[in-house]
Amino acid sequence: MAAKEGRFWGWAFASVIFRLILIYFPNNLNLSSRPEVSTPLTSLRRLAEGYWLKQSSLSPYAGSMYHGSPLLLYVLGPLTAKSLVFVIADVVNALLIRVIGQNLQISYNQRLKALSLDAIPKEKAILPSRDIAALVYLWNPFTIVSCVGLSTSPIENMAVILSLYGACTRYGPETPPRKLFDGKVEDSASSNHSHRAMKQQGAATIFSWKPVLKFLMWSVVWSIYVLVLCGLCVRHYGGLHEMFKRTYGFILTVPDLSPNIGVLWYFFAEVFEFFRNFFLIVFHMNILFMVLPLAIRLNHRPCFLAFVYIAISSMLKSYPSVGDAALYLGLLGLFVNELAGKFIDMQFSFFLFCVYVGVSLLSPVMHNLWIWRGTGNANFYFATAMAYACFQIVLVVESVSAMLSHDRKLKKLSIAKHQESKSQQHSTNDLSDSRTRTTVKSAVASWIEDLCILRNNAFLLSI
Amino acid sequence: MELSFTQGRWNYERWGGFDPVPSNNAKPPGVELWAVFDVPHYQVDASWKNLTHALSGLFCASINFLESSTSYSAPQWGFHSASGNLRYGTLPREAVCTENLTPWLKLLPCRDKAGISALMDRPSIYKGFYHSQRLHLTGKGFDSDGVDSGIVLQQTLTVVLQPNEKRTPVTSLETKFQPSWSLTSIFGRKVSGSCVLAKSSTVYLQLDRDLVAELKNLQKHNEIAVAENVNYEGLRSGYGFQLSVEPDKVLEEVNGSHGTSPSLLYVFSVEKHSESEPFDLGLTWKIPVAWSCQQAPLHASRFLMGSGNERGAIAISFESTRLSEWLLHSDAIDSCELPVKIFQVVPWYIKVYYHTLQVYVDEQQQAISDVVDKIHVSPSEDKVSPGMMEMILKFPCRMKSAVATLEFDKGFLHIDEYPPDANQGFDIPSAVISYPDFYSSTQFGDDKSLEALPILAKFQENNSVVSYTEVLLVPLTTPDFSMPYNVITITCTIFALYFGSLLNVLRRRVGEEERFLKSKDAKKGGPISQFLSKLSAKLTGRPLETPQSPTSTSSSFISSKLILKVVLVAGIAIVWHFYLE
C-alpha cells in the first residue's frame, strides 16, 4: 500500500515538474491563444483587458471583451502574469478529486459488505480508483494544455470540485443523504426483510424537511452575499443588470462566433437570423431536459449523477473548452471500478480512446489549415468539432448505461444471495431499497442533488 | 458639417503636409463625414441619421450606410474640439466618380458652364493622382433677435494632376527640367471669362517656401558664377520660370518667422478675360530646379503586423522629418516635447486589446505613462458600436522614429454580415494624426483688405497640422457560405443522437424485457416471426429480444381511438378559431 502511495506522489510531483518546464520553456508555445484553450469565457487575455478597463475607470464589461464575474477580476486581475496560480489550482483539484474518491471507495466497500459481496475489487487493481482519477486529471493533456495555456478554467474547475467535495463530505456519497430519513436506519436494523418493505412505505412520510430547509437557507444567504459583493463591484458601471447581461446573457445568446471546439459557433454563424432564437431555446433546453430523467434513474448515485451533469453541460455549453473536458474525464476516473470492473465492461472504450486521440490531434491541424494557411475550409474544422461532440455523447451514454447495468448486476447477485440465505435476518440492502422507494422520495433526493449543482453555480458566480 | 469625397491618397512626402492646403483639404480615401449638431443631446443620433439619408440622396452615394451605429463614432476631443455633439463616420471603400461630382457642381452658381468651373473636364480630373471634393457647411448661428443669419457653404475641389508631358519624378536629378504646364494642357479647356453670378473669380498660384528659397539660391549661385549679363528680373516676375499671363498682384508671406524664405502668391483675376481672350495660365521652367514641399513634423504611416486570420496588430509608425530637426535646432532644448494627437476608429469585428498598447521610441520600448499624455478609449461593442481611441502622445524632439502598436483579434461574423466580396477583406478607416503645437496658417500681407478674399482668410485660419494615415485592409476568415442547410441538419442530428440515445438508455428496463421475452417464448409465434427475431438479435448482437409490435393487435380499437383524437383536436381548433374571432 505504501509503495502505491509513493508511486502516486511520484507521478503527481512529476506532473507538476512537467507543467513548470512547459511554463518556463524558452520558446513560447502560444498555447494561450489556441481556440481550444481560450474561449471568450476563459481567455486570460480578455480578463487582462477587463482588468485594464477597470483600472482606467471604465466598465470592465465595456467592449464585449470580458464576460466573467467581477469578483474573479479582483482575484485574478493582479495575477495575470503569474501562471503558478494555475499549477497550484490544478494540484488542489487533483487532491480534492482524490479525497472524493476516498469517500466514494469507503461507501462503495460498505455497500458491498452490506450486500455480503466483498472481496471483489481489492486485489488486482494497480492503483485505487481515487489515485487513478487524480492522476488522470493531472496527466490529461487537456488539463496540462489549459493550465499551461493560461486560461481561467483550472480556477473554475476548482470551484466545481470544491463544491462537489463539500457535498460528498457532509452526508457521504453514493447514498441519498441518510439524515433525510431519520427513522429508517434503526427500523431496518431491527425488523426482518418483509416487514421492512412495509415500513419503507411509511418512511417516506416521515421525511424530514429540516436539512432541506437548512440547505435552502444557506444557499440563499450565500447567493445574496455573492450578489451583494458583485453589486458593490459593478455599481458604477450599470449595476447587476449590466453584469447579468454581460455574463449570463452572453452565455445564453451566443453572440461571439469565434471558433471553438463546440458545435454552436458554426451553427449560429450559418443559421438564418429568424430561426436563431428558436434554436437558442432548443439547444439550451437540451441541457435542462435531461436533468429530471437522469435524477430519477441515478438517484442512488449522486456522485455519478454529478459527473453526468458536468459532462452534459460541458458538452452542450456555448463556449466549451478543453478545461471542461479535463474536469469530467478526471471525474470519470473515480468510477473506474464500476465501469470496467468485474461485473460489466463499458462498451466502445477503445474506440472512444481512439476518437479522443484522433480529435485532439486533428483539430489543431484543421484549425491551422483553415485560419493560418488559408488552404483549408471551415468545414474541416467543424468536422472535427462534430467528431468531438460525438465522442462526448457516446462517452456519456455508454458510461450511464454501463453504470445502470452494473447496478442491475449487483442487484441480481444480491437477490440470488438473498434467496440462498433467506433466513438470515440482517440483509439490509440499500440497492433494493432504492427500487422500492416511492417516486416522490427519489424525486426529492434528486432535487437535493440538483440543488448541490445549483450551489456549484452559485460558487462559480462568486469566483 | 463637412463632407468629402476622395479618390486616391494624398502623398504627404511629395505634396507636403504642413501647408493649409494639405491640412485642410487632404482627406482620407472614400467618404468622410463629420457634423456638429446644435440639438439636445438625445436628438443627436436621430439628426445624424436624417443627415446621412439626405446627403445620400443629394450626392448619389451610399452615405446612408453611415446611419447604423456600427459605422460612426462620437469623438470627444481627438478629432475636433467640439462637445459631445460631434459625430464622425467614414466609408473607406466608397468609389468616387462623376455621379458624385455632378451634384457637387450643381451647387455652384454657374455649374460647370462658365467661370473657373468650366475647367472641370471629367476625364482630366479623374485622370489625376488625387481628387477630393469637399463640402463645408457652417451655420453662422443666430443673431440676438433670433433671425437666422444664414449658412456659409464652402466647396473645395482639390486635385493633384499630372502635366501632360512625360512624367519626371520630383526626387530625380536636378538636371531634369520640371514639366511645364498650362491650364489648357492640364484640363484641356480654357477659361473664358468669369461666371456672371460670381462676385469674384480669381486664380492663385502659390510658390512654396522651399521653392522660393531654392530659386533664390540658384539665382545667387548664378550671379556669382556668371556675374555679367544677368537679366535681373526680381522675384516678382519670377526667376527661373516664365508665366504666360502677367499676374495682377504678387503677395508675399509676412510671417517669415520660420527662418525660411516666404512663399509667394500670384493672383490672377479671371474677370478681365473674355471669350475672345481666354484665360490660359501657363508656367514654363527655364532652369532645372528641384525642391520638396514642407513636411509635417512627423511622417505617419500605419500598417498591419502578424499573419493568419486569427489575430494581428496595428502599428502606427512616425518618422521624423526635416521640420522637427529644424525645430530642435531652433529650440535647442533637450526636454522639448512633441505632442501628437491620434484619433482612430476601428470597426467592431477588429477586437482591439487596448491593454496591449506599446510605444517604441527609437526602437526602445517606453513605459506607457511616460509617453501617453492623455488617452480616451471607448471600446467596441459587438454589433453595436465601433471602437474608438483618442490619444495624445508626447515624443522627445530628438527622436528619429517611433512606433505605437495595438494587438487585436479578428472577429467572426454571421454569414449575412459579410459583404458580397468577403474574401477581399475589410477596411479599417484612416487614423487622424494631428500636431496640436503646429499651426498651418499662412499670412499674406498686412493689408486688411486682403482678408476679404476668402481663400486668404482660409489660409490665415489657425488650424493645427493634420494628416491622415493609410486605410488598412484586413482579411477576415470566412465560413463556407454554401453550407447553412448542411450545418443545420448535421448539428441537429448530433443533438438528436444525444437526446435519443441517452433517453433510450435511461428508459430501458431489462427486467420487463426479459419477462416480455419469456411470454413471447411461451406463445411461440409463427416460424417467420421467430426467424425475424433471431435475425434481429443477431444483427444487434443483443440477447434475444423481440421488438414490441402492439399495433398489429386490436387495430380497430386503435383506429376508433384515433378518430376520437382527431375529432377532439379538430374541435379544439374550431373552438380556438371562434374564440379568437
UniProtKB/TrEMBL annotation, chain A:
Cellular-component GO terms for this entry: GPI-anchor transamidase complex
Annotated TM spans: 7-25, 71-97, 215-235, 247-268, 274-296, 325-343, 350-372, 378-404
Keyword Electron transport attached: no
Major site of localization recorded for this protein: endoplasmic reticulum
Places the protein is found: Endoplasmic reticulum membrane
Pfam families: PIG-U
Membrane topology, from the record: Multi-pass membrane protein
Record's keyword terms, sorted: Endoplasmic reticulum, GPI-anchor biosynthesis, Membrane, Transmembrane, Transmembrane helix
GO biological process, alphabetically ordered: attachment of GPI anchor to protein; GPI anchor biosynthetic process
Pathway field: Glycolipid biosynthesis; glycosylphosphatidylinositol-anchor biosynthesis
InterPro entries named in the record: PIG-U
Membership in a protein family: Belongs to the PIGU family.
Protein name in the entry: Phosphatidylinositol glycan anchor biosynthesis class U protein
From TrEMBL, chain B:
Example of a GO biological process term: attachment of GPI anchor to protein
Keywords: Membrane, Transmembrane, Transmembrane helix
Pfam families (UniProt xref): Gpi16
Organism domain of life: Eukaryota
Entry's transmembrane regions: 485-506, 562-579
One GO cellular component term noted in the UniProt record for this chain: GPI-anchor transamidase complex
Protein name according to UniProt: GPI transamidase component PIG-T
